[in-house]
Write a structure and sequence with these properties.
It contains four helices and eleven strands. The N and C termini lie far apart (37 Å). By secondary structure, the chain is α+β, with helices and mostly antiparallel strands. The protein folds into two domains: 78 residues, Alpha-Beta Plaits, CATH 3.30.70.580; 93 residues, Alpha-L RNA-binding motif (Alpha-Beta Plaits, 2-Layer Sandwich).
């Protein structure tokens, strides 16, 4: 009874848990994805949005989630105030979180605010505090890492969206929408993780 594994890209909306069940009855992946047998390869916090990969292929899930594979994950973070070069340099070099140093990250200021769908719960807006968007690429994923990193350098994250996992980009998927990955995209994930493997 072996069926072909399914792997999908899903745009997780704000306020949705990255799992299929919740005893408290909050919105979960099950409200959007009706495919039996798939589960999330990696997490994305309740208050974060954007790309998740869901798969019924256990080996592929391991490729995506195992930190040894160093699969790059790209985030757009809207932060308070314009970070100076020193703050950006600290983010790039790695930050000490809970006694452990994060790996070096790619960080750049986005020249323009990205065109994103409105969030159901607007970010808190303070006229006196400007905001900017950063693009942050990590090759690891500890709990709430982007938010913790930007907070340490004095620029709290107000809105966080994951826009790519390895070779897979969010593209024009709208919140709550999903699509099947092509066999070529799945091969790309495996190729990238094999190249980046090792400690």
């Amino acid at each position: 009874m072996t069926s072909t594994p399914r792997t999908i890209a899903f745009n997780k909306p704000y306020g949705v848990l990255p799992c299929f069940t919740d005893p408290e009855g909050r919105p979960t992946l099950a409200d959007f994805v009706k495919i039996p047998g798939v589960y999330a390869a990696g997490r994305l916090d309740l208050d974060s949005e954007g790309l998740m990969l869901l798969t019924s292929d256990g080996a592929l899930a391991h490729h995506v989630t195992d930190p040894r594979h160093k699969l790059p994950k790209v985030y757009w973070a809207q932060v308070e105030r314009l970070p100076n070069e020193e703050a950006l340099a600290r983010l790039r070099q790695g930050i000490s979180l809970g006694g452990k140093r994060t790996r070096p990250a790619l960080v750049r200021l986005l020249p323009n605010e990205p065109e994103l769908p409105e969030r159901p719960v607007p970010i808190r807006f303070r006229k006196s505090v400007p905001t900017v968007w950063l693009e942050i690429t990590l090759r690891e994923g500890t709990n709430r890492q982007v938010r913790r990193m930007t907070a340490v350098v004095g620029h709290p994250t107000l809105r966080l969206m994951r826009v790519a996992i390895g070779p897979i980009a969010l593209g024009d998927l709208q919140p709550g929408q999903w699509r099947d990955l092509t066999s070529r995209e799945i091969e790309q994930i495996k190729r990238v993780t094999q190249q980046g493997g090792g400690g």
